[in-house]
Fold this sequence. Notes:
Blueprint: H1 2-25, H2 30-61, H3 66-88, E1 95-96, E2 101-102, H4 105-138
Antiparallel strand pairs: 1-2
Helix pairs in contact: 1-2, 3-4
Amino acid sequence: MKKILNILLGVLMAITAVLMVYAIATGGSDAAISVNLTWGYFLVVFAIAAAIFCAVFGMIQNPAGIKGTIVSLALIIVIIGVAYFISAGHSIQIPDLANGGVFGAGETVLTETSILVTYVAMVAAFLTAVVTEIYGAFK
């Protein structure tokens, strides 16, 4: 199973590299940007599906871990909820240069929520890496 996942990871990385070279070679043409955005969306959906599958598969194999999974899911929901309410409380108008107006509140709130959740995820990943390394050094 691990070998299959490593092959899949290699294929996904190769496709990403080819698409990046294509975008650079064409000077950022609309077609290259469109293909790269579509690929990025596919990778996000694939990552979410893989995370859900692994969580469910892990719960099936180890029912004792359900408590940790539920706590993690609740924490994720709380983070997204707090980011949404922070975003909804702002009245920022982002100019829409293509159409000569401003983006609506829905797009602005969704974008800001996504950015805030990304910041929290990056900080959490950094802290996890640092704490894990420090713990490993003293172990």
